[in-house]
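Why should sequence recovery work at all? Because a backbone constrains its sequence more than one might expect. Tight turns favour small or flexible residues, buried strands favour hydrophobic ones, and helices have their own preferences. The token representation captures these environments compactly. In the example below, the structure is given first.
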């Protein structure tokens, strides 16, 4: 199992926003989180390099593509050996009907989420692509009535008060910006004072 990556409140806030809408620009992220756009760019780049962000996917509506019926197929493979698992996984993941494939513990070895046109199409898929394979001992089909998306994926125990810490970080960055701006005004004022005697 891969080691977890240490994330601070700013990272978590960025991940929440990007999981809700991966098209959010760096400028919008920065304004929401309370940091500079360049800081946001660096943060997202580090999250990608560390493997926290794996990529961005385009979500489609199966029904709009003529695949309005979805189902979960519980599959037993016998014998459950590595030389059989490889070809089975390769074939199932290549099927246009397959949406997700899970390798499980328990009585069933695999759970396959599929999207098909109708029940006749589902029957064809089960008979032609699953039960026809010699290593498949059993297939149990369950239709999906409805599906809900869950909240953004975050570490098991986010630091308490992370929202306040993010806000405090933003205030510190903003204060630093004001200090730099004040310094610029002081330098400009000194320049005017130096030029006054010359006139």
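From this structural description, the recovered sequence reads:
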């Amino acid at each position: 199992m891969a080691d977890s990556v240490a994330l601070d409140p700013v990272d978590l806030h960025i991940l929440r926003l990007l999981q809700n809408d991966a098209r959010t620009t760096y400028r919008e992220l920065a304004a929401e989180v309370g940091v500079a756009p360049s800081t946001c760019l660096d943060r997202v780049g580090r999250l990608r390099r560390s493997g926290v962000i794996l990529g961005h996917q385009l979500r489609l509506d199966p029904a709009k593509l003529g695949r309005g019926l979805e189902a979960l197929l519980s599959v037993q493979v016998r014998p459950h050996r590595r030389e059989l698992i490889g070809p089975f996984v390769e074939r199932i993941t290549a099927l246009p009907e397959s949406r997700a494939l899970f390798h499980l513990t328990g009585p069933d070895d695999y759970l396959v989420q599929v999207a098909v046109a109708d029940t006749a199409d589902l029957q064809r898929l089960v008979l032609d692509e699953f039960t026809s394979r010699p290593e498949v001992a059993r297939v149990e089909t369950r239709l999906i009535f409805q599906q809900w998306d869950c909240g953004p994926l975050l570490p098991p125990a986010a630091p308490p008060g992370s929202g306040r810490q993010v806000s405090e970080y933003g205030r510190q960055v903003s204060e630093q910006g004001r200090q730099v701006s004040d310094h610029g005004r002081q330098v400009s004022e000194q320049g005017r004072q130096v030029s006054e005697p010359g006139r």
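A few observations help interpret the result. Residues 162-198 form the longest helix (37 residues).
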